[in-house]
Design goal:
This protein has ten helices and 13 strands. The protein has a five-stranded mixed beta sheet, with helices on both faces.
Length: 295
């Protein structure tokens, strides 16, 4: 058995994964604003606590972590969404006494979906994780495309708006500043004068129930339309470059599938002269990060 960890900008999910990719048991914790203030300490303490509990119940032989950004030899070289640079996470976790591997979270999720989920059976595909940021991966001839030392294929940081919103990567107008789920939900909260604690489930219901009789109909409609437009621009760029058989989308976008996916497909078909675009949402949901971390 291996332990897979999906370490995100706002959560830590930990699971025990069998050799055939099944999650035997898992826990998930959302990081509070206070915990985020000392993110390194919060990450290490939460991982220690959960791993030790699982070690008491399972025969564990490896700890595998998927995280946003770039890790090398156990060192988090840079993770903008976590606000961490040059942090030796492997050393910080050495008392766990297990072999530790750390890799980019989007690549982990993509590997899981390619082996067990929405990308299975395709030779050319791309995968996007839409969450706090936007991560990505591409497959050619059924193999994950690798770059150099950095994770590569950082789709979230291609520029889609000239001189646009400042991104933590240093550039302006990055795809993820306009099409991540974090940006979408923040824009919706701001437009509706909602507190930042308003959860995604509540926002989803507002969109699902939005009709002309709603006083905020046009406000919600404008935010959704703008989001779909920006997301379509980025995906269309990737389609032109990779010519995939399928585009897979994971992350918290999956929870908004009922109100966003149909509109996204329609927009992409419009751009592509009504050509049918194969867009699939992640079958494994947020479990993809845990499963992919051990692959």
């Amino acid at each position: 058995m291996k332990i897979g960890i999906d370490l995100g900008g706002s959560h830590i999910a930990v699971g025990v994964v069998s050799s055939d990719g099944k999650i035997m048991e898992k826990t998930e914790k959302r990081l509070t604003s206070i915990e985020k203030q000392d993110i390194k300490k919060s990450i290490v303490e939460n991982i220690y606590k959960q791993v030790e509990q699982f070690k008491n119940n399972y025969e564990i032989d490896e700890l595998c972590i998927g995280m946003p950004g770039w890790a090398e030899d156990g060192v988090v070289v840079e993770s903008g969404n976590l606000g961490i640079k040059n942090y030796d996470l492997k050393k910080a976790l050495e008392d766990i006494n297990l072999p530790i591997r750390i890799r980019n979270d989007a690549k982990c999720a993509a590997l899981a979906e390619h082996s067990y989920g929405c990308l299975k059976g395709y030779t050319r595909s791309i995968f996007l994780t839409l969450g706090t940021g936007i991560g990505g991966a591409a497959f050619l001839d059924g193999k994950l495309l690798e770059a150099g030392k950095k994770p590569g294929y950082e789709f979230g940081h291609m520029v889609i708006i000239k001189d646009g919103i400042q991104c933590h990567c240093g550039k302006k107008g990055c795809f993820e500043r306009y099409a991540s789920m974090k940006s979408f939900k923040n824009n919706l909260r701001k437009a509706l004068n909602l507190d930042e604690t308003t959860r995604g489930e509540e926002l989803f219901e507002m969109i699902r129930r939005n009709t002309l009789e709603n006083d905020d109909y046009y406000v919600i409609e404008n935010i959704v339309s703008e989001y779909i437009d920006n997301l379509s621009i980025g995906i269309q760029n990737l389609i032109c470059i990779f010519e995939p058989e399928v585009v897979g989308i994971g992350g918290s976008f999956v929870y908004f599938e009922d109100v966003l996916l149909k509109r996204l497909k329609s927009k992409l078909q419009e751009i592509n002269s009504n050509e049918d675009m194969k867009i699939e949402t992640a079958v494994l949901g947020n479990d993809a990060g845990i499963i992919g971390a051990v692959l």
